[in-house]
Write a structure and sequence with these properties.
Distance between the termini: 38 Å
Number of strands: 72
Number of helices: 2
Low-confidence stretches: 251-256, 618-626, 728-735
Mean pLDDT: 89
Shape: globular
Helix content: under 10%
Radius of gyration: 28 Å
Largest sheet: 44 strands, mixed
Structural class: mainly beta
Length: 781
């Protein structure tokens, strides 16, 4: 339906939301004269919905509204429209299920007979039990729901379901048929049968005492199974010494890897070990396959110089495997000789498990490695669960999508153990749809030592557009140069964001381009015009970080920019330094390159700071990493780099003149562009020594129903402050000017359009503080 002139339209809405809680709307043609009409849908289709009420927003701008759901209402699905005089927006359903992706035991959109299907998103449960049904021409089958939550619902696939394509209908149990949603079709495949061919390696001459090299016997069994089309290489109880890489054809210089449909199966993890003794030079990998292979029920031991332990591509399954891979085995001081054993300290070792491709499964493994544990690169549809890990790093996911990472336990095994990330590395343009649920992470002290962070930077354009027609448009300005850190070398598959002006808050994927002509994946809901400022960059978002516990780490969860529509909920922080939500605009002084790193639509719900007094302290310039007092930190970070385009040098704060130069405008602005936008913090519970901080160029943020106990500070709102930074100010950071003669409050980099509502304090010395806490654009209710 075409948009009528000046009719309000809702682009995005915050949910889940309950009675006496605030809804944050982003849209078009809003203003002070707008009203909201709200009604609750009946959960039973035979019942009538509740009566409609008209609500006056608490705050309104041209593209945002904030209003409160009536306190007397029940939780449920609400129909919401915005009115402006006689003009009425298209309704949206608050708390209706919003499914981001579906993933089964066979990968994205695929499950097997007797397998499972997992549905990820938001508002998937509102108190009532969700209902999931498979639909075919022969009828519908209601599936058994297992352990539902607001962000993930798992169902069992009956063994007797006929293989084929099925339509899936999902209801979160509220709102009746109007709030049910159709998912993309799901393919049910036949239950996978085990391979009939089984070759016992001892029958081919493998020595099970560990005294003789068994490589030849194992490779022969693997190649024979390749000729049979697959099967099982079986290892009875024993210790099998291997002096080379387990790769088919290793002795005949064949390019073949482990054939498809081959399984390495041991008699039991505690009964079977594959042992690689010291190597003069590290092997490229110990076990290497291409795709469709499995390793299960055995142990892998190696020491000294080694690289990756298991490497594979698509459809790799690793389950009930113990890995012990210690580069420094029996050495002292990280590599110095002991009893004639020693290794080069700077030798780089590969991860325990490295996978490229689709549908990787790693479950119930016990892994100790002196390097990183998991490296997933451009993986799609991976499932990693119930693994116990001690390693230098937990995981690195680059360019991945549709990944479930749950119920894993990590303990750092070195004093220099570092953090883990979802990244835009390895040529990745987008990383999205990762569920990180109910993991335990502890003892990370090295480097930036984040328990979890985003990483990677890509920007190709910041400027205006013209000739907008459907999904096509043309860039007016020039693309960024490619000679600065964070430059985007390929736009295909990237995202085009409307940063300012008409349609702000929308993005579309780039499907094709030629020169400055861009083709997007779909038309705009609200088309950009001459007022609109757009950017093109990488995408990291639509992630679910749910129910994890971080203990004795640096930053617990860091949405390092870019970060788009992530939900960080029900996590616990115990002596972890910060929870960060960062948007950044960065100018390189010796280059026309600019990094535009947006942080939009992120929600922090029901997180808990159990113990906020952390180990560490340091300069305020790196407080997002270094410990001290835990903080939930929402930061609009705008800097210029003094020296070179590669980021070497000192950062200074962005100036009005600097932004004017970037945008090519005739006059400087009074406020910089907000990079951190439409953020929700709700029911954040602090037990001691912690606070909530909003800093810099942040806009359209809600902080509501939080409980802060036994802390020096409660909620702090600050513009950036330009003053001499001390080298070390101890455990507790203080952003107040220490010397008014040497300090400047930078109103150009100040927050606005904040709503701070219904928060509770107990034993807090300063409940509300900061340079901007009393400004008119900051509402405290």
């Amino acid at each position: 339906m075409p948009l009528l002139k000046d009719s309000p339209l809702i682009i995005w809405h915050s949910d889940p939301v309950g009675p006496d809680e605030t809804v944050l709307l982003n849209g078009y043609a809003f203003g002070d004269d707008c009203m909201v009409k709200l009604k609750r849908l009946a959960d039973d289709d035979s019942a009538a919905p509740s009566g409609e009420v008209e609500i006056t927003p608490l705050a309104a701008t041209a593209d945002s509204l904030k209003f409160v759901v009536p306190a007397s209402w029940q939780a449920g699905v609400y129909s919401c429209v915005v009115t402006r005089g006689k003009a009425v927006s298209t309704p949206v359903l608050l708390n209706a299920p919003n499914v981001w992706w579906r993933q089964g035991d066979r990968g994205v959109g695929k499950a097997s007979q007797g397998g499972w299907l997992s549905i990820q998103g938001k508002c998937l449960q509102l108190g009532n039990n969700p209902v999931v049904t498979l639909h075919a021409e022969t009828g519908a089958v209601e599936l058994k729901v297992v352990d539902p939550s607001p962000y993930r619902v798992k169902v069992e696939i009956p063994v007797g379901v006929t293989p084929g394509q099925y339509r899936v209908v999902f209801s979160n149990g509220s709102g009746g048929a109007e709030a049910s949603v159709d998912l993309d079709p799901v393919e049910i495949t036949a239950k996978r049968l085990p391979g009939k061919a089984v070759f016992n390696v001892r029958d081919l001459g493998a020595d099970h005492t560990g005294k003789k090299d068994c490589t030849l016997a194992i490779v022969q069994a693997t190649e024979l199974l390749g000729a049979y089309g697959g099967g099982v290489v079986y290892f009875p109880a024993g210790r099998y010494r291997i002096d080379s890489v387990l790769r088919s054809g290793v002795f005949i210089k064949s390019p073949l890897k482990i054939p498809q449909n081959v399984t390495f199966r041991g008699e039991g993890t505690e009964l079977v070990s594959l042992w690689w003794p010291d190597q003069e030079e590290p092997l490229p990998a110990l076990i290497e396959g291409s795709n469709n292979f499995c390793i299960e029920d055995l142990s892998i031991y190696t020491q000294g110089k080694h690289s990756t332990i298991i490497a594979g591509e698509s459809n790799v399954t690793i389950r009930r495997v113990r890995i012990r891979a210690n580069h420094y085995y029996m050495t002292v001081n990280n590599g110095k000789p002991h009893h004639k054993r020693g290794v080069e300290v700077d030798h780089m070792v590969g991860p325990a498990i490295e996978i490229w491709g689709d549908n990787a499964t790693v479950t119930d493994c016990d892994i100790y490695t002196s390097a990183a544990c998991f490296e997933l690169k451009h993986c799609h549809g991976a499932y990693l669960a119930n693994n116990t890990v001690m390693a230098r790093n937990f995981f690195f996911f680059s360019g991945c999508s549709e990944v479930i990472f749950e119920h894993n336990s990590f303990v750092g095994n070195q004093l220099t153990t570092g953090g883990s990330n979802f990244a835009l590395h390895m040529g990745a343009i987008a990383t999205r749809h990762i569920y990180m649920g109910h993991n335990s992470i502890s003892h990370i002290y090295g480097g930036d030592h984040e328990a979890f962070t985003f990483d990677g930077h890509q920007t190709a354009y910041l400027g205006k557009v013209k000739n907008v027609e459907g999904a096509c448009l043309e860039l007016i300005g020039d693309l960024m140069p490619r000679n600065f850190k964070g430059a985007m070398t390929e736009m295909l598959g990237g995202a085009l964001f409307i940063v300012e002006g008409k349609g702000r808050g929308q993005f579309r994927w780039i499907e094709d381009y030629e020169g400055k002509s861009i083709t997007l994946d779909s038309p705009w809901l609200v088309e950009p015009d001459e007022t609109s400022l757009v950017s093109i960059g990488g995408f990291n978002g639509n992630h679910l970080i749910i129910g994890n516990t971080m203990t004795d780490t640096g930053t617990a969860v860091q949405l390092y920019p870019p970060a788009h529509e992530c939900i960080v909920a029900e996590n616990k922080s115990v002596r972890a330094s910060n929870i960060n939500c960062l948007g950044r605009l960065r100018q390189f002084k010796n280059s026309t390159g600019v990094r535009v790193e947006l942080c939009w639509y992120n929600q922090f719900l029901d997180n808990e700071i159990v113990e906020g007094n952390c180990w560490g302290g340091g300069s305020t310039e790196v407080d997002r990493w270094i410990g001290g007092e835990t903080c939930l930190n929402i930061w609009g970070w705008h800097v210029s780099t003094v020296f070179n385009e590669f980021g070497a040098g000192q950062d200074t704060f962005m100036t009005p003149d600097g932004l004017q130069t970037i945008l090519g405008e005739s006059t400087p602005r009074s406020l910089s562009l907000p990079m951190a936008l439409f953020t929700v913090v709700r029911r954040h519970h602090i037990h001691n020594n912690s606070s909530i901080r909003i800093r810099g160029r942040v806009s359209e943020t809600l902080v509501e129903n939080c409980r802060i106990n036994n802390s020096a500070r409660g909620i702090r709102v600050d513009a950036e402050i330009d003053y001499p930074q001390p080298e070390d100010i101890g455990q507790l950071f203080d952003f107040s000017p220490t010397d008014p003669d040497k300090s400047r409050i930078l109103d150009f980099l100040a927050p606005d359009q904040l709503l701070i509502r219904n928060n509770h304090f107990n034993g807090v010395e300063q409940e509300y503080l900061g340079t901007d806490i009393n400004k008119k654009t900051i509402q405290i209710v």
